[in-house]
Structures are given as C-alpha cells and as structure tokens.
Amino acid sequence: MTSLFGLFAPAFLTGLLVCPAKLTPDRFGVESKNGVWWLSAPGGQRLWSLGVDCVGIGDKGKPDNPNYDGIGLFGSNEAWAADTTRKFHAWGINTLGGWSQPEPFRGQFPYTEVLHLGSYDKAPWHDLFSTESKTIIAKAAADLIPKHRDDPKLIGYFTDNELGWWDDTLFITYFGFKKGAPGKLALVESIRKTYGGNYSAFLREWKTDATSFEDLAATTKIWLKAGTSGIRAVHDFNFKLASEYYREVHDLVRRYDPSHLILGDRYCQYYNMATAEASAPWTDVTSTNAGADWTDGTYSTGYFESLYALTGKPLMVTEFYFSANQNQSGNRNTGNAFPKVETQEMRGSGFANCLRQLAGIPYVVGAHWFQFSDEPPKGRGDGEDWNFGLVDVKGRTYSQMESVLKGFHADQVHQSTQSLTKHALPVAPRSPLADHLKSWDRLDGRLRSASKRQWADLYACRDASSLYFGLVPMEYGDANLYESGKIPEVDRPLLKLKVGNWTGTVRYGFSKKASLSTGIASCSERPGLKHILALQIPFKSFGKPLHRGSEVRIQAVLVSHGRGYEMKWDENLRCE
Asked: How many domains does the chain have?
C-alpha cells in the first residue's frame, strides 16, 4: 500500500521513553514492531484505534434547534447502545473517543478519558507555578482519576484538550504578572539562564527600564528589539512552562493510576517545538487534533513527522473531521475553521483520504473522528454548527461515510505502511499557483531536510517554462512583543532559495503580503498558522531550462520569526 507518510523516524530521533506507564497484562500499552507502532490491548492483541468522539445519548435540544436525542429515537439507554454497537461493529469502529459515554456499552469498546486537569485553572494562562493553581489541578485529579483506574477497557487519559500554547503571548502574559508571583519569578530566572546571567547581553536584545535581573521582576513591560535573536528567551521560557505542566499532570495521574497510558493534551492543529520537546519525558503517546490541510483530505507531511521526531512517542490523532454544505441536519457550517466541501460525495472522499493517510503513518496508533452526530443546526452552546456527524440529528446515517468505513481495514493499511516515493522533480499541475498546492505531487516533490527541528514542508515541481516551490510552514507570532505593536519586516520569517547560481528570497506572514526578491515572478499565499506559499521562478531567472531527465540542485534555508530556528534543504533532483 503506497503511503503518503511512509517515513520512519529520522536519524536524529532519540526515542525518549522516560516515565512510561507501568505495563501490566490487563492494561493497554504501546509497542513498536518492525518500525510500526501499535496500541497493545489486554490479552496481547495489537490495536489501531479507529475511534469516534462524543458518542453519547444526547438530548432533545430546543424545538427550533434540535439535537441528536438517543432516548427519543430508541426509547432507552440500552436500546440506543445496542443500535450504536451494531453500527460500530459493522463500520469497523473499535474505540470510544473523547467525551464519549462508555457506561451504556457495558465494556463493549475500549475508550479514552479527557480529564481537563489544567483547564480547571485555565492553564497555561493562570500562574502554573503558583500554589493556588497546583491545588486546583490536584483536586481535579483526585476527583476524576480514581473512578477509572481499575477499568481494563480504558486506553488512557488525555490530560487536557487544545491548551493555548501560544509561546509569544504566554511570555507577555507571565511578564505582566505582579512582582513576587511564582510565574513571574520563574520567567525572570529563565531569562537570566538564557543570557548566562549577563544583563548587558539581555539589554542588547530587549528594551526595558529595569536595570538588573532583580529589578526585572518588578517590571511588567519589555519589548523585543528588531533584528536581534531575543526570541530565544521566549522559546526557553515556553520550554520551562510546558515542562512544569507536563511534569505536574504526569505526577498527578501516576499518583492515582500507575498503569493506564498518559495520552497527551490534544494539540489544536498546531504545536510549537519547545512545547512538544518539553512533553517528551512525561507522556506515553503524543496527541493532536488535526483537520486536513486541503479539502481533498490530505495533510502536510511534516506536521506529524516533526512531532514524532521531537517527542519520540507514537502519535494519536484525536480529532479529524469533514463537513459538507449539503447535509441532512440543516447545518450552516459557519466560518472557515474546519475543512468544508459542497456535497456528501466530496465529504466521503475527503474522509476516505484522511483515513488512508493517517493509518498509513507508521508511528500513528489511532485516529478518532469528530464526531458521532451532527451538531445542532443553529449551533451548540458556543455557536458551533457543523455537519460533523456519521449520523444526523435525527439519527439517520450518512451513507457515504458508512460506505467508506465498511470498505476500510485500518489494521491492514497500518501493517503495510511503506514509502514508495521516487523522490524526483515532478511535473507541475496545470495551474500551479491556483489551489495552494492541493493539486501538486506532494509525495515525490517534497524535499528532505536533515535539520533537527523541522516546522515546514518544502515542495518543488516544474513545467515547460518555470520552476515552482511550495512552502507549508507552521508559525505563530504576537506583535505585542514589539514596542510598535507590529512585527518588523526584518523579523518576519524568511525563505532563501538557491538554484544553480541564482538566489532569491521571500519574507512572509503576519498580516502582510509576501515580499519577493528579483527573479521570483509570482506568488500565491494562504495565510494562517500554516501559511501556504506557492512561488514561480521562470527558467530564465537561473538560465537553465529543465526538461525530462535534467538534474537540478536545489538549496534552501528557512529562518523562523525573529531568527529563532533555522531549517535547511540541499537536494539534487532529476526531472520526471
């Protein structure tokens, strides 16, 4: 089976396995066999977790905004659970994902539990280092964990869901804490360590009225100086803050349950590298919510590959989803936060691609669909009103989704994962700049980087007149780090390209159009946390037309916001 993600751990992967769950034969674990990761179920069977989130009896909702109502449809918990069980067995669903109700199923399915430990004190935004925060989180652990600790059907715990690991903004927030706050003292100590106790070195990169590190603890405003490398202090503190969180919740889970898996905190389709690295010693599995990057149901490869490399832990995709404007519940699918297509046929096709690709990643141990039923057509409590369901609000199955599930065999796809990439310079699609890389050959045209920290994918292709580059970087920045309230041009992310003797650059991101150097003819971009760029470079720019059989050397350097990280590529590619 050809796999878009048939890449095993990069050479630099260290495979951190600190503090794993205490393995017992009646608990779930994780194991790697021939380079492919699996969940190990009680009794020794291997499991690729194909799950569904929010599997529950529901309620009536309101007359003008109906919800999925299992009691109204089936008359009792037992009848509802029996019908849902029949559906799941027929569809190959083997796991109850987050926010599901396992009780009515009487042990029929493995399940996961979302604890929300940090969320009880709005982590990480409230002072994670304070006694108050630790007391609140500890009480939540004591209340929630013991009731599950003896259940062999529990796969493990998600400690939270979609915490806001926005590193720049967290740095600003903690700096705004009052003098003496534990989090403020931790931040100042982190800054001191970053600069080796040299306050003059700190002042070369940051602006403040404080005259010493001690004085800094009483200050609430500092600003990053443009053109410096001061962003490293932000990364260092985020690592310290995330380490505090992951260690704390790990220790609390292990206090009450020594053997079930700790499954991470479900990243919100984004992670920064310091956070992911900090989690590594304290989790058994790394979890992330991940909607497809393109409406055909495909993903940028590097998102998963880098997360695995940073943590050394198998991954679980804890939410993936697709909606269609044509639906049975009357959902409006307000906004553009999630993948959305026009018809149920297109939705089913995207769903199938997601499943094949996620199961085809050797270090992903499961994927959970969000969610069992459509959201209420006029919105749930927070207004979200999307056609996410395998069934609609009246319990009617979406036949296209059912057909995909019945024809999909997750274990077989996962077992046969492999890479069949030719790794060449493919021919470009008809309109290379038109659809933000959706139509590109992103399997063979992806350049490989040997950089330890990777936060972007770089692709290349060519037609009869031009060479094209596609970049999919993951980047977050807060303009409030600067006194001007704007991210300066010199600190915007920078891509440097070299083809033969030609060099070119592009700066991008943060509410401004991409800035192109001479020789780059045109650019299309899709802003966002993954800011997709497509660039056209005519052959005349580097004086060498490319045709089938030609070889070309491509070198590139990507520098992140404020020069925090650097990523390099250097490839010789033969034209298809």
From this structure: 2
DSSP annotation string for 301-338: HHHHHHHHHHH-S-EEEEEE--EESS-SS-----SSSS
150 and 53 inside one domain: yes
Backbone angles phi, psi at 573, to 5 degrees: -120, 140
Cα torsion angle, 519, 571, 439, 269, sign:
negative
Place of tokens 């292990």: 254
Residues 384 and 250 in one domain: yes
Range 53-69 average pLDDT: 96
Cα–Cα distance list, 114 to 20, 96, 162, 500 (Å): 19, 12, 11, 52
Q: Is 516 within 8 Å of 269 (Cβ atoms)?
A: no
Residue 8 has pLDDT above 60, yes or no: no
CA distances from 508 to 202, 247, 297, 503, 562 (A): 27, 36, 26, 17, 12
Q: Six-digit token pair at 465?
A: 């007149």
The answer to whether residues 409 and 319 belong to one domain is yes
Does one domain contain both 401 and 474? no
Given 382, 415, 448, which residue is the final one in a domain?
415
pTM for the whole structure:
0.94
CATH of the domain at 538: 2.60.40.1190
Query: What's 166's DSSP letter?
Result: -
For the record, the structure tokens of 54 come out as: 């929010």
**Residue range of the domain that includes 500:** 456-574
Kindly state whether residues 360 and 254 are assigned to the same domain: yes
Per-residue tokens: 575: 């034209």
Q: Which amino acid is at 546?
A: L
H, E, C per residue of 548-573? CCCEEEEEEEEECHHHCCEEEEEEEE
Looking at the domain assignment, is residue 191 inside a domain? no
Q: Report the half-sphere exposure of 478 (CA within 13 A, side-chain side).
A: 15
Give the relative orientation of helices 167-175 and 231-256 as an angle to the nearest 10 degrees: 90
483 and 402, same structural domain?
no
Cis amide linkage into residue 454, ω under 30° from 0? no
Residue 195 lies in a domain: no
Q: 469 and 433 in contact (C-beta within 8 Å)?
A: no
Mean pLDDT of the chain: 94
User: Tokens 């992903």 identify what position?
Assistant: 364
CATH number at residue 125: 3.20.20.80
Interatomic CA distance for residues 93 and 101, integer angstroms: 15
The torsion region of residue 183 among left (phi > 0), alpha (psi -120 to 50) and beta comes to alpha
Is the same domain home to 248 and 326? yes
Q: Tell whether 304 and 396 lie within a shared domain.
A: yes
Q: How far is residue 94 CA from its own chain's centroid? A: 23
Q: How confident is the model at residue 543 (pLDDT cuts 50, 70, 90)?
A: confident
